[in-house]
Amino acid sequence: MSGMLQKAKGQKKSRIGMYVSIASSLFGVVGTIKRGREARREGDTLQLVDVAVSAAGIVTGVALLVRELRRVDLDDVLADD
Alpha-carbon Rg of the chain, whole angstroms? Predict the structure, then answer.
């Protein structure tokens, strides 16, 4: 591996980066809701299943990011000692 890649792997995620990731995930909700409304209006069951899976992925991703954000906060508190 290159030196830059090793250096990047060793760094923790920044708090701002995690907030940006959460925000971008939540923007995905808008498109998912639009697709869900259209699928419901058309009665397309397969598309509704796709929307449900996409929504589950978004919820899981946000939950993982929030968990990571909490870990960063705990590390900061422990670092102050």
Answer: 18
Inter-residue contact 40 to 48 (CB < 8 Å): yes
- Residue 10 counted as domain residue: no
- Burial class from Cβ neighbours inside 10 Å (0-12, 13-18, 19+) for residue 77 reads exposed
Structural domain that includes position 60: 16-79
Q: Which residue has the tokens 């419901």?
A: 40
Residues 17, 19, 20, 22: is their CA dihedral positive or negative? positive
Q: Tell me the pLDDT of the chain (81 aa) as tens digits.
A: 455 545 445 445 677 888 888 888 888 899 999 999 999 999 999 999 999 999 999 999 989 988 988 887 766 655 554
Q: Domain for residue 6, yes or no? A: no
